[in-house]
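ugh finaly. both done.
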Amino acid sequence: MIRAVCWDVGGVFTGSPHDAIAAIAAEHGLTHAQLSGAVFGDLAGERGHPWHELEVGRLSLREAWPLIEERIAAIGIDLSMRDIMRRMGADPFDRSIVHDTAAAFAEAGLTQAVVTNNVREFADMGDGRGWRRMVPMEHMTVVVDSSVVGMRKPDAEIFAHLLSELGVDADEAVLVDDTPVNLDGARSVGMQTVLVGSDPAPAMTKLRSLVLGDSID
Protein backbone atom coordinates (compact mmCIF):
# COMPACT_ATOMS: atom_id res chain seq x y z
CA MET A 1 0.00 0.00 0.00
CA ILE A 2 1.27 3.46 -0.91
CA ARG A 3 1.57 5.77 2.10
CA ALA A 4 3.74 8.53 0.60
CA VAL A 5 3.78 10.26 -2.79
CA CYS A 6 7.10 11.92 -3.65
CA TRP A 7 7.02 14.59 -6.33
CA ASP A 8 9.70 15.94 -8.63
CA VAL A 9 9.24 19.61 -9.63
CA GLY A 10 10.59 20.38 -13.13
CA GLY A 11 8.70 18.41 -15.77
CA VAL A 12 5.95 17.53 -13.29
CA PHE A 13 4.58 20.76 -11.81
CA THR A 14 6.28 22.76 -14.59
CA GLY A 15 7.07 22.23 -18.26
CA SER A 16 9.62 19.61 -19.25
CA PRO A 17 13.22 20.85 -19.35
CA HIS A 18 14.01 17.88 -21.58
CA ASP A 19 11.51 19.06 -24.19
CA ALA A 20 12.93 22.59 -24.08
CA ILE A 21 16.49 21.35 -24.55
CA ALA A 22 15.41 19.11 -27.44
CA ALA A 23 13.69 22.02 -29.19
CA ILE A 24 16.65 24.38 -28.76
CA ALA A 25 19.08 21.70 -29.94
CA ALA A 26 17.03 21.04 -33.09
CA GLU A 27 16.98 24.76 -33.90
CA HIS A 28 20.79 24.79 -33.83
CA GLY A 29 21.33 21.55 -35.72
CA LEU A 30 22.40 19.63 -32.62
CA THR A 31 21.14 16.47 -31.01
CA HIS A 32 19.36 16.55 -27.68
CA ALA A 33 22.26 14.59 -26.18
CA GLN A 34 24.82 17.17 -27.32
CA LEU A 35 23.08 20.16 -25.78
CA SER A 36 21.86 18.31 -22.69
CA GLY A 37 25.38 17.06 -22.08
CA ALA A 38 26.79 20.58 -22.29
CA VAL A 39 24.15 22.13 -20.03
CA PHE A 40 23.40 19.36 -17.53
CA GLY A 41 26.15 16.78 -17.97
CA ASP A 42 25.41 13.09 -17.59
CA LEU A 43 22.11 12.95 -15.72
CA ALA A 44 23.24 9.78 -13.96
CA GLY A 45 25.96 11.74 -12.20
CA GLU A 46 28.94 13.31 -13.96
CA ARG A 47 31.00 14.36 -10.97
CA GLY A 48 32.46 17.81 -11.39
CA HIS A 49 30.08 19.10 -14.07
CA PRO A 50 29.13 22.65 -13.01
CA TRP A 51 25.38 21.93 -13.16
CA HIS A 52 25.80 18.99 -10.80
CA GLU A 53 27.98 21.07 -8.49
CA LEU A 54 25.27 23.74 -8.58
CA GLU A 55 22.56 21.20 -7.72
CA VAL A 56 24.40 19.96 -4.64
CA GLY A 57 25.18 23.46 -3.43
CA ARG A 58 28.93 23.44 -4.04
CA LEU A 59 28.71 26.23 -6.63
CA SER A 60 26.54 29.32 -6.69
CA LEU A 61 24.51 30.33 -9.71
CA ARG A 62 26.94 33.18 -10.36
CA GLU A 63 29.86 30.73 -10.36
CA ALA A 64 28.24 27.94 -12.37
CA TRP A 65 26.58 29.73 -15.26
CA PRO A 66 29.76 31.03 -16.96
CA LEU A 67 31.28 27.54 -16.73
CA ILE A 68 28.22 26.01 -18.37
CA GLU A 69 28.18 28.70 -21.06
CA GLU A 70 31.78 27.75 -21.90
CA ARG A 71 30.62 24.18 -22.48
CA ILE A 72 27.76 25.41 -24.68
CA ALA A 73 30.18 27.52 -26.74
CA ALA A 74 32.43 24.48 -27.12
CA ILE A 75 29.71 22.66 -29.09
CA GLY A 76 29.48 25.57 -31.49
CA ILE A 77 26.53 27.73 -30.47
CA ASP A 78 26.21 31.14 -28.86
CA LEU A 79 23.50 30.78 -26.24
CA SER A 80 23.26 32.13 -22.72
CA MET A 81 21.94 30.21 -19.74
CA ARG A 82 19.42 33.00 -19.24
CA ASP A 83 18.02 32.25 -22.72
CA ILE A 84 17.86 28.54 -21.95
CA MET A 85 16.11 29.10 -18.62
CA ARG A 86 13.57 31.35 -20.31
CA ARG A 87 12.76 28.62 -22.83
CA MET A 88 12.54 26.01 -20.10
CA GLY A 89 9.88 28.11 -18.41
CA ALA A 90 7.49 27.73 -21.36
CA ASP A 91 4.87 24.98 -21.11
CA PRO A 92 2.19 24.08 -23.68
CA PHE A 93 0.38 21.73 -21.28
CA ASP A 94 -2.18 22.40 -18.56
CA ARG A 95 -0.67 21.36 -15.21
CA SER A 96 -3.86 21.79 -13.19
CA ILE A 97 -4.36 18.02 -13.26
CA VAL A 98 -1.13 17.62 -11.28
CA HIS A 99 -2.32 20.08 -8.64
CA ASP A 100 -5.73 18.39 -8.55
CA THR A 101 -4.06 15.01 -8.02
CA ALA A 102 -1.96 16.33 -5.14
CA ALA A 103 -5.10 17.82 -3.59
CA ALA A 104 -6.92 14.48 -3.91
CA PHE A 105 -4.05 12.72 -2.15
CA ALA A 106 -4.10 15.30 0.64
CA GLU A 107 -7.83 14.78 1.08
CA ALA A 108 -7.22 11.02 1.28
CA GLY A 109 -4.73 11.60 4.11
CA LEU A 110 -1.59 10.57 2.24
CA THR A 111 1.81 11.98 3.12
CA GLN A 112 3.42 13.92 0.28
CA ALA A 113 6.93 15.16 -0.34
CA VAL A 114 8.98 17.13 -2.83
CA VAL A 115 12.31 15.60 -3.86
CA THR A 116 14.02 17.86 -6.36
CA ASN A 117 17.38 18.34 -8.01
CA ASN A 118 17.42 22.09 -7.85
CA VAL A 119 19.39 25.28 -7.42
CA ARG A 120 19.46 27.11 -4.11
CA GLU A 121 18.76 30.46 -5.76
CA PHE A 122 15.70 29.07 -7.59
CA ALA A 123 13.70 28.30 -4.42
CA ASP A 124 12.42 31.85 -4.05
CA MET A 125 13.46 34.44 -6.62
CA GLY A 126 11.03 37.15 -5.47
CA ASP A 127 8.27 38.80 -7.49
CA GLY A 128 6.20 35.61 -7.40
CA ARG A 129 8.95 33.54 -8.99
CA GLY A 130 10.73 30.44 -7.74
CA TRP A 131 9.96 26.74 -7.79
CA ARG A 132 8.24 26.73 -4.39
CA ARG A 133 5.58 29.03 -5.84
CA MET A 134 4.83 26.48 -8.58
CA VAL A 135 4.17 23.60 -6.17
CA PRO A 136 1.20 23.19 -3.79
CA MET A 137 3.46 23.35 -0.75
CA GLU A 138 0.47 23.23 1.59
CA HIS A 139 0.20 19.52 0.76
CA MET A 140 3.92 18.75 1.22
CA THR A 141 5.10 17.39 4.57
CA VAL A 142 8.73 16.85 3.57
CA VAL A 143 11.00 18.79 1.20
CA VAL A 144 14.28 17.29 0.03
CA ASP A 145 16.13 19.85 -2.10
CA SER A 146 19.43 18.61 -3.54
CA SER A 147 21.08 22.01 -3.14
CA VAL A 148 20.28 21.96 0.59
CA VAL A 149 21.04 18.32 1.47
CA GLY A 150 24.11 18.02 -0.78
CA MET A 151 22.80 14.91 -2.56
CA ARG A 152 21.03 14.53 -5.88
CA LYS A 153 18.88 12.09 -7.79
CA PRO A 154 19.49 9.39 -8.97
CA ASP A 155 21.95 8.59 -6.16
CA ALA A 156 20.60 6.06 -3.67
CA GLU A 157 21.53 8.17 -0.65
CA ILE A 158 19.06 10.93 -1.45
CA PHE A 159 16.24 8.39 -1.58
CA ALA A 160 17.39 6.82 1.69
CA HIS A 161 17.34 10.31 3.23
CA LEU A 162 13.87 10.96 1.80
CA LEU A 163 12.46 7.71 3.19
CA SER A 164 13.99 8.42 6.59
CA GLU A 165 12.38 11.86 6.66
CA LEU A 166 9.03 10.36 5.65
CA GLY A 167 9.23 7.46 8.08
CA VAL A 168 7.98 4.92 5.54
CA ASP A 169 9.39 1.79 3.94
CA ALA A 170 10.59 2.02 0.34
CA ASP A 171 7.74 -0.07 -1.06
CA GLU A 172 5.24 2.28 0.61
CA ALA A 173 6.49 5.28 -1.40
CA VAL A 174 6.17 6.25 -5.05
CA LEU A 175 8.39 8.69 -6.95
CA VAL A 176 6.72 10.82 -9.62
CA ASP A 177 9.42 12.13 -11.97
CA ASP A 178 10.03 13.01 -15.62
CA THR A 179 13.61 11.67 -15.81
CA PRO A 180 13.98 7.90 -16.34
CA VAL A 181 17.38 7.67 -14.66
CA ASN A 182 15.90 9.19 -11.48
CA LEU A 183 13.22 6.51 -11.49
CA ASP A 184 15.94 3.89 -11.86
CA GLY A 185 17.58 5.27 -8.73
CA ALA A 186 14.32 5.13 -6.78
CA ARG A 187 13.61 1.57 -7.89
CA SER A 188 17.12 0.55 -6.83
CA VAL A 189 16.13 1.22 -3.21
CA GLY A 190 12.73 -0.45 -3.59
CA MET A 191 10.43 2.52 -4.27
CA GLN A 192 7.62 2.42 -6.79
CA THR A 193 7.72 4.90 -9.67
CA VAL A 194 5.60 6.75 -12.22
CA LEU A 195 7.16 8.43 -15.26
CA VAL A 196 5.65 11.77 -16.32
CA GLY A 197 5.75 12.54 -20.03
CA SER A 198 5.41 15.88 -21.79
CA ASP A 199 1.64 15.78 -21.17
CA PRO A 200 1.17 14.98 -17.47
CA ALA A 201 -2.40 13.66 -17.81
CA PRO A 202 -1.62 9.98 -18.60
CA ALA A 203 0.83 9.79 -15.70
CA MET A 204 -1.70 11.29 -13.28
CA THR A 205 -4.26 8.68 -14.34
CA LYS A 206 -1.72 5.92 -13.70
CA LEU A 207 -0.68 7.47 -10.39
CA ARG A 208 -4.24 7.79 -9.10
CA SER A 209 -4.86 4.16 -10.03
CA LEU A 210 -1.75 3.05 -8.15
CA VAL A 211 -2.38 5.17 -5.06
CA LEU A 212 -6.16 5.46 -4.79
CA GLY A 213 -7.28 2.48 -6.83
CA ASP A 214 -9.05 4.63 -9.43
CA SER A 215 -9.94 2.67 -12.56
CA ILE A 216 -8.10 3.33 -15.82
CA ASP A 217 -10.54 3.53 -18.72
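ok and the 2nd:
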Amino acid sequence: MLQEERQRFILQRINLHHKVLTSDLCQLLNVSLDTVRRDLTELERKGKLVKVHGGALSNMFHYPYQQPEVYAREEKIAIARKALSLIKDGMVILAGGGTVMLELARLFPENLKGTFFTVSPLVALEVTQRSTVEVILLGGRLARNSYICTGSSVVSQLAELRADLCLMGTNGIALKEGITDNDWEVVQVKKAMVRCAESTAVLTISEKLGTAQRMQVCPLSSIDHLITELRPEDERLKEFSKLFKVI
Protein backbone atom coordinates (compact mmCIF):
# COMPACT_ATOMS: atom_id res chain seq x y z
CA MET A 1 0.00 0.00 0.00
CA LEU A 2 1.34 3.41 -0.98
CA GLN A 3 1.93 6.15 1.59
CA GLU A 4 -0.97 8.23 0.25
CA GLU A 5 -3.33 5.25 0.55
CA ARG A 6 -2.14 4.49 4.09
CA GLN A 7 -2.63 8.06 5.21
CA ARG A 8 -6.08 8.24 3.64
CA PHE A 9 -7.00 5.07 5.54
CA ILE A 10 -5.64 6.50 8.80
CA LEU A 11 -7.64 9.70 8.38
CA GLN A 12 -10.82 7.76 7.64
CA ARG A 13 -10.35 5.71 10.83
CA ILE A 14 -9.61 8.74 12.97
CA ASN A 15 -12.53 10.74 11.56
CA LEU A 16 -14.91 7.89 12.34
CA HIS A 17 -13.59 6.84 15.74
CA HIS A 18 -11.86 10.04 16.94
CA LYS A 19 -8.63 8.27 17.87
CA VAL A 20 -6.35 5.53 16.56
CA LEU A 21 -3.76 3.30 18.21
CA THR A 22 -0.44 2.69 16.49
CA SER A 23 -0.64 -1.02 17.35
CA ASP A 24 -4.03 -1.33 15.62
CA LEU A 25 -2.80 0.53 12.55
CA CYS A 26 0.24 -1.75 12.25
CA GLN A 27 -2.07 -4.76 12.19
CA LEU A 28 -4.69 -3.26 9.88
CA LEU A 29 -2.15 -1.91 7.39
CA ASN A 30 0.33 -4.78 7.77
CA VAL A 31 3.26 -2.39 8.14
CA SER A 32 5.94 -1.73 10.76
CA LEU A 33 5.60 0.50 13.80
CA ASP A 34 8.16 2.91 12.32
CA THR A 35 6.09 3.25 9.14
CA VAL A 36 2.94 4.09 11.10
CA ARG A 37 4.82 6.60 13.25
CA ARG A 38 6.20 8.33 10.15
CA ASP A 39 2.70 8.53 8.66
CA LEU A 40 1.28 10.00 11.87
CA THR A 41 4.11 12.51 12.08
CA GLU A 42 3.50 13.59 8.48
CA LEU A 43 -0.26 13.91 9.04
CA GLU A 44 0.31 15.95 12.19
CA ARG A 45 2.69 18.24 10.28
CA LYS A 46 -0.12 18.81 7.77
CA GLY A 47 -2.51 19.66 10.61
CA LYS A 48 -4.73 16.60 10.02
CA LEU A 49 -4.47 15.05 13.50
CA VAL A 50 -2.86 15.36 16.92
CA LYS A 51 -0.20 12.80 17.88
CA VAL A 52 -0.34 11.38 21.41
CA HIS A 53 1.48 8.58 23.18
CA GLY A 54 0.51 5.31 21.50
CA GLY A 55 -1.53 6.81 18.69
CA ALA A 56 -3.30 9.97 17.54
CA LEU A 57 -6.46 12.00 18.14
CA SER A 58 -8.81 13.70 15.73
CA ASN A 59 -8.62 17.49 15.42
CA MET A 60 -12.36 17.44 16.13
CA PHE A 61 -11.51 16.58 19.72
CA HIS A 62 -9.01 19.36 20.17
CA TYR A 63 -10.66 22.40 21.77
CA PRO A 64 -11.80 24.81 20.47
CA TYR A 65 -13.70 22.93 17.76
CA GLN A 66 -13.44 24.44 14.31
CA GLN A 67 -16.88 23.83 12.80
CA PRO A 68 -15.77 23.70 9.13
CA GLU A 69 -13.26 20.96 10.05
CA VAL A 70 -15.80 18.68 11.73
CA TYR A 71 -16.04 15.44 9.77
CA ALA A 72 -19.43 14.86 8.06
CA ARG A 73 -20.83 18.00 9.69
CA GLU A 74 -23.90 18.26 7.42
CA GLU A 75 -24.84 14.66 8.23
CA LYS A 76 -24.43 15.37 11.94
CA ILE A 77 -26.66 18.44 11.71
CA ALA A 78 -29.32 16.30 9.99
CA ILE A 79 -29.07 13.74 12.81
CA ALA A 80 -29.39 16.48 15.42
CA ARG A 81 -32.53 17.84 13.77
CA LYS A 82 -34.10 14.38 13.82
CA ALA A 83 -33.22 13.93 17.50
CA LEU A 84 -35.23 17.03 18.38
CA SER A 85 -38.40 15.02 17.67
CA LEU A 86 -37.74 12.95 20.81
CA ILE A 87 -37.40 15.95 23.14
CA LYS A 88 -40.58 17.05 24.94
CA ASP A 89 -41.46 19.60 27.62
CA GLY A 90 -41.04 18.36 31.18
CA MET A 91 -38.46 15.71 30.33
CA VAL A 92 -35.35 14.84 32.28
CA ILE A 93 -32.80 14.51 29.48
CA LEU A 94 -29.32 12.99 29.75
CA ALA A 95 -26.76 13.64 27.02
CA GLY A 96 -23.24 12.50 26.25
CA GLY A 97 -20.55 14.39 24.38
CA GLY A 98 -19.09 14.53 20.90
CA THR A 99 -19.65 16.54 17.76
CA VAL A 100 -23.15 15.20 17.03
CA MET A 101 -24.25 16.21 20.52
CA LEU A 102 -22.74 19.67 20.05
CA GLU A 103 -24.79 20.13 16.88
CA LEU A 104 -27.90 19.07 18.82
CA ALA A 105 -27.05 21.53 21.60
CA ARG A 106 -26.87 24.35 19.04
CA LEU A 107 -30.40 23.50 17.88
CA PHE A 108 -31.89 23.11 21.35
CA PRO A 109 -35.42 24.59 21.78
CA GLU A 110 -35.15 28.05 23.32
CA ASN A 111 -38.12 27.82 25.69
CA LEU A 112 -37.98 24.13 26.58
CA LYS A 113 -39.19 23.27 30.08
CA GLY A 114 -37.31 20.46 31.77
CA THR A 115 -33.93 19.40 33.12
CA PHE A 116 -30.88 18.67 31.00
CA PHE A 117 -28.05 16.57 32.47
CA THR A 118 -24.80 16.06 30.60
CA VAL A 119 -21.28 14.73 31.14
CA SER A 120 -19.89 17.18 28.57
CA PRO A 121 -18.86 20.71 29.66
CA LEU A 122 -18.94 21.85 26.03
CA VAL A 123 -22.48 20.57 25.47
CA ALA A 124 -23.56 22.13 28.78
CA LEU A 125 -22.23 25.54 27.68
CA GLU A 126 -23.92 25.35 24.28
CA VAL A 127 -27.33 24.44 25.74
CA THR A 128 -27.03 27.11 28.46
CA GLN A 129 -26.41 29.79 25.83
CA ARG A 130 -29.37 28.75 23.68
CA SER A 131 -32.13 27.50 25.97
CA THR A 132 -33.86 28.31 29.25
CA VAL A 133 -33.89 24.61 30.24
CA GLU A 134 -32.17 23.86 33.55
CA VAL A 135 -28.68 22.50 32.82
CA ILE A 136 -26.80 20.25 35.25
CA LEU A 137 -23.21 19.18 34.51
CA LEU A 138 -22.19 15.86 36.04
CA GLY A 139 -18.62 16.47 37.14
CA GLY A 140 -15.60 14.23 37.37
CA ARG A 141 -12.22 13.76 35.75
CA LEU A 142 -12.15 15.43 32.34
CA ALA A 143 -11.03 13.02 29.62
CA ARG A 144 -8.46 14.75 27.43
CA ASN A 145 -9.36 12.84 24.27
CA SER A 146 -13.13 13.42 24.36
CA TYR A 147 -13.77 16.36 26.72
CA ILE A 148 -16.35 14.50 28.79
CA CYS A 149 -16.33 13.90 32.53
CA THR A 150 -15.42 10.36 33.54
CA GLY A 151 -14.53 8.39 36.65
CA SER A 152 -16.27 6.84 39.64
CA SER A 153 -17.83 10.13 40.76
CA VAL A 154 -19.73 10.47 37.47
CA VAL A 155 -20.86 6.84 37.58
CA SER A 156 -22.08 7.35 41.18
CA GLN A 157 -24.03 10.48 40.22
CA LEU A 158 -25.65 8.65 37.32
CA ALA A 159 -26.71 5.82 39.65
CA GLU A 160 -28.87 8.35 41.53
CA LEU A 161 -30.52 9.71 38.38
CA ARG A 162 -33.66 8.59 36.55
CA ALA A 163 -33.76 10.14 33.09
CA ASP A 164 -36.64 10.03 30.65
CA LEU A 165 -34.34 10.10 27.64
CA CYS A 166 -30.64 9.38 27.13
CA LEU A 167 -29.03 10.80 23.98
CA MET A 168 -25.70 9.15 23.24
CA GLY A 169 -23.16 8.95 20.45
CA THR A 170 -21.14 5.85 19.68
CA ASN A 171 -17.84 4.80 18.17
CA GLY A 172 -19.26 1.59 16.77
CA ILE A 173 -22.60 -0.16 16.29
CA ALA A 174 -22.98 -3.69 14.95
CA LEU A 175 -25.65 -6.37 15.12
CA LYS A 176 -23.47 -8.84 17.02
CA GLU A 177 -21.18 -6.58 19.06
CA GLY A 178 -23.81 -3.97 19.94
CA ILE A 179 -22.75 -0.46 20.99
CA THR A 180 -18.97 -0.24 21.39
CA ASP A 181 -16.24 2.26 22.20
CA ASN A 182 -12.46 2.37 22.44
CA ASP A 183 -11.96 4.09 25.82
CA TRP A 184 -12.49 2.14 29.06
CA GLU A 185 -13.44 5.16 31.18
CA VAL A 186 -15.89 6.43 28.58
CA VAL A 187 -17.45 2.96 28.32
CA GLN A 188 -18.13 2.89 32.07
CA VAL A 189 -19.88 6.27 31.90
CA LYS A 190 -21.97 5.22 28.91
CA LYS A 191 -22.98 1.98 30.63
CA ALA A 192 -24.21 4.01 33.61
CA MET A 193 -26.07 6.39 31.29
CA VAL A 194 -27.98 3.55 29.65
CA ARG A 195 -28.83 1.99 33.02
CA CYS A 196 -30.40 5.16 34.41
CA ALA A 197 -32.54 6.06 31.38
CA GLU A 198 -36.11 5.06 30.61
CA SER A 199 -35.34 5.35 26.89
CA THR A 200 -32.00 5.48 25.05
CA ALA A 201 -31.33 6.93 21.60
CA VAL A 202 -28.05 6.40 19.78
CA LEU A 203 -27.02 9.15 17.36
CA THR A 204 -24.45 8.21 14.73
CA ILE A 205 -23.44 8.79 11.13
CA SER A 206 -24.13 5.82 8.87
CA GLU A 207 -20.43 5.13 8.22
CA LYS A 208 -20.24 3.62 11.70
CA LEU A 209 -22.98 1.06 11.01
CA GLY A 210 -21.51 -2.42 11.10
CA THR A 211 -18.30 -1.31 12.83
CA ALA A 212 -17.12 -2.42 16.27
CA GLN A 213 -14.54 -1.25 18.78
CA ARG A 214 -12.74 -3.21 21.49
CA MET A 215 -15.15 -2.61 24.40
CA GLN A 216 -18.91 -3.09 24.60
CA VAL A 217 -21.15 -0.43 26.10
CA CYS A 218 -24.35 -2.46 25.78
CA PRO A 219 -26.14 -4.95 23.52
CA LEU A 220 -28.58 -3.57 20.97
CA SER A 221 -31.45 -4.86 23.11
CA SER A 222 -30.73 -1.94 25.48
CA ILE A 223 -31.37 0.65 22.74
CA ASP A 224 -34.77 2.14 21.89
CA HIS A 225 -33.96 4.49 19.00
CA LEU A 226 -31.28 4.76 16.33
CA ILE A 227 -30.86 8.10 14.58
CA THR A 228 -28.71 8.47 11.47
CA GLU A 229 -28.72 10.84 8.50
CA LEU A 230 -30.29 8.08 6.36
CA ARG A 231 -33.96 7.68 5.56
CA PRO A 232 -35.50 5.02 7.86
CA GLU A 233 -36.30 2.77 4.89
CA ASP A 234 -32.67 2.72 3.70
CA GLU A 235 -31.46 -0.84 3.08
CA ARG A 236 -28.48 -0.31 5.41
CA LEU A 237 -30.91 0.09 8.32
CA LYS A 238 -33.10 -2.91 7.53
CA GLU A 239 -31.69 -5.33 10.13
CA PHE A 240 -31.42 -2.62 12.79
CA SER A 241 -35.05 -1.61 12.27
CA LYS A 242 -36.11 -5.09 13.41
CA LEU A 243 -34.61 -4.39 16.84
CA PHE A 244 -35.67 -0.82 17.65
CA LYS A 245 -37.18 2.29 16.12
CA VAL A 246 -35.04 3.84 13.40
CA ILE A 247 -35.48 7.57 12.85
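summary for the 2nd one i guess: DSSP finds nine helices and 15 strands in the chain.
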